[in-house]
Amino acid sequence: MQAEEVWGQRWTMNTLPMARAYMEVACRKQSLVCLAADRSTMAGLFDLIETVGASIAALKTHVDLVDDWTPEAWSKFCAAAKKADLLIFEDRKFADIGGISRKQMAGVYNIRGWSDLVTAHLISGPDIVDGLQAAWSDVGREGGVLLLAQMSSRGNLLEPAYTAKVVAKGKAHSGVFGFIGNGSRPDELVLLRDAVGDGKLIWTPGVNLAVGDGEMGQRYGHPRDAVLAGSDCVIVGSGIHKADNPGEQAAAYAKASWDALCNR
Ligand code: 5BU
Questions:
Q1: Atom of ligand 1 minimally distant from the CA of 207
Q2: For the whole prediction, is pTM greater than 0.90?
Q3: Each residue's pLDDT tens digit, 141-170
Q4: Domain 3-263 homologous superfamily, CATH
Q5: In the chain, pLDDT over 70 holds for what percent of residues?
Q6: Where exactly are the structural domains of the chain?
Q7: What is the dihedral angle through the alpha carbons of 132, 134, 135, 137, rounded to the nearest 10 degrees?
Q8: Is 76 a catalytic residue?
Q9: Which candidate in 29, 60, 83, 93 is catalytic?
């Protein structure tokens, strides 16, 4: 199916190459699922790409939680992700001043060299987006920033007035790919979508087919409800990687998210 037909206004109002790349991958895979690949070994990570790669559109990493991380293994992992037609999203939640965030994109993990997307808080001001964009430019690559406008965890401090300011500043910036919204609360997502409009994407963690409370304050909403409320990508971790049959579960999340997009 053509991306424009499926995504409607979200496609026509958004000319950012990375955003369109995502919308096209989602159509090829018929999935709005980003896998939160929170496994602690390289073998566990490779296994995930192999078993669920066909049902997901993007892969979210926490590069600093892998016990046996090496640059060589990581570079093979990223190559496997690309081969599986996945965008690579490092959920680093940068928050420092622009110049330091730029340097943190280099360093041991060299996030600028392999990430297509990263997350950032706007707590330090909008220059963080320029710092992250400069880091990708430093190595001749392009990427997009997802700003945390909401979070899924209970008691978080990203209150409506803060969310509104993040959206107002982020909407106007071409380096901003989109916003993180709270996938566990469709009513909050509807408000976020109203504020964002169609020009930027909203990606949502806190999604599980088993709705309710998770570990340590995590909260979960249903993928269908998140997409109907305005999410463009459901970020799913344990719902897939801890399942008895991750392949089957990934396909179920893909179907729920894709059907909801087609209904929307
Ligand atoms: P889970 O296993 O589906 O709960 O994993 C959720 C993932 O999304 C995990 O990697 C978190 O770091 C990430 N996350 C989140 O849960 N909530 C948020 O508000 C943000 C990220 Br931002």
A1: 3
A2: yes
A3: 999 999 999 999 999 999 999 999 999 999
A4: Aldolase class I (3.20.20.70)
A5: 100
A6: 3-263
A7: 130
A8: no
A9: 93
